[in-house]
Amino acid sequence: MNPTPRVVHIIDSLLVGGREKLVTHLAIARGSENTSVICLFEAGPLGEQLRQQGFRVDVAGWDGSRFGFARRVWRCIGEHRPDVLHCHNLFAHRYGVACVRWRNPQASIVMTIHGPQDLPGGVHGTINRMQMRRSHVVAVSDEVRQMAEAWLGDGGRPVRVIDNGISLAPFDDLPSRQAARHELGLSGDAFLVGIVARLDEGKGHAALVDAVARLRAVRPNAVLVFVGDGPLRGAFDNAPNAILLGERQDVPRILAALDVFCLPSAAEGLPMAILEAMAASLPIVATAVGEIPRLLSDGAGWLVPPGDTHALDRALAAAATDRERGVAARRRVERHFTVEKTLAEYEKLYRETLT
What we know:
This protein is an alpha/beta fold and 355 residues long.
């Protein structure tokens, strides 16, 4: 076996999202000689980015036929020849495990669960549970670990927690706020509250629209900036005082243009979007769900209960006049949540699975 294990990530796609960014960061940190990716549905912009940097990124492609789809996944795994197949969430794990056992049975299996989710019922749930008991399961938070352990029951290996981490390089030497706004065509005089998240249920976009509308009573120049796309985009096309930037590859520069970052989600694991806002030294307001309270400890941000509009209003008003917490947030991500730290823990796990 190669002294450096060959790791193949298998994931739905490499669209712009938290787990997709983690896979991209891990791949780049490991290098293309020993890392590749199989996308089940599409490569996405992050997949294209990896291809441009010399990584092999293959797409199985769903065409409505489970047999044909499984055969393509099986073929991809055979061509990539992993020492470790690293599966991301349940669907990728179900197909990845089934196919690697046929094609490359000596490979070990690592599965990362990236956030709260439901275990399917019926036969799919039974298959997932049986497969997970033979895999090395990683959770991104203690809450997710407890969820996974409840799925597994008394069987399977212990579930370990590995924190997400980001590369700090894109956040070094960012332009000033005014220069970033000029680059992006944003108003230099506006008070910009931003959110980077998929436009989907549970991320709190509607609550944030209402909160910024109330904030305008004391800050008439307050404007909301949405970064991301998703099924709810049409619901916000005409949202008052909101700018929709869609999916972007220049998130660090957009964050540099903001005054405050806010993520009022109903549920989270360990969100990459908050780590990025911390790296950009932004004041952060977020709901106290998942691992967010741990991220924003030591004075790194404001926590509000999910669904508490009054607490959200107070926190946004406080964040508007206090940038010291942004400095504290940057220090915290530097110390605890870098991709180098995350990769070291995964690398240790990869080698353990092969001994």
